[in-house]
Amino acid sequence: YNGNVYKTVKVKADETISPSESPSVSDLGYDPEDNCVVWRIDGTPFESSYTVTEDLTIVADLGTITTVIFKGLNGEELGTAKVCPHDTLNSSGATIPEITNIPEGFTAKYFYNNVAIDPENDYYNGASTHTYTAELCVTIKFLDGDDNELASYEIQQNKSISSVDGTIPAIPNIDGYSTAGWTDGVSTYGTIK
Fold first, then answer.
1. Model pTM?
2. DSSP code per residue over 12-48
3. What pLDDT was estimated at residue 18?
4. How far is 39 from 43, CA to CA, in rounded Å?
5. Residues near 35 by Cβ (< 8 Å), separated by ≥ 6?
6. pLDDT at residue number 165
7. Exposure string (b/e) for 33-42, b if CB count within 10 Å is 16 or more?
């Protein structure tokens, strides 16, 4: 770590080594409340037994723990999680607090800068804190003339459909009719904004 050799171990060829033998962040002289370590072999996390077939170097990937904060619909703190930069919320085993007091007809999700939380793929790269805020969402469904669903999007309340990944479906051609656009039952739109 930091270019220094922590320890050298001799192992017979074709013997296995275990991650449990790796030094902890405390062993390296760092505070485990604020730091974490992942040991890597050729860039891949050393997470399961490894059969040694040749000389190898296991490198410490030190990182600063991020405190992930979850805020509710009224801005109140619902919970926190501690996540290492090499982990996601899911891989760290973090519990994401349930959003409560959702009005009828709405759903809710956590967002950061208008991007919905992705517990499987969001990484925090050592930021000291990262705050997700709960926001109300609505579902927009696009139906053809026979009420068959062509597409469906869940978006933040008061946001435009253009902010949703994906495309608005083409206005269907209906034999014997000319179609003017999409309707919400009150107004007709050629495009949705």
1. 0.71
2. -TT-EE-GGGSPPTTTTT--TTTEEEEEEETTEE--S
3. 80
4. 9
5. 25, 62, 63, 64, 65
6. 58
7. eebbbbbbee
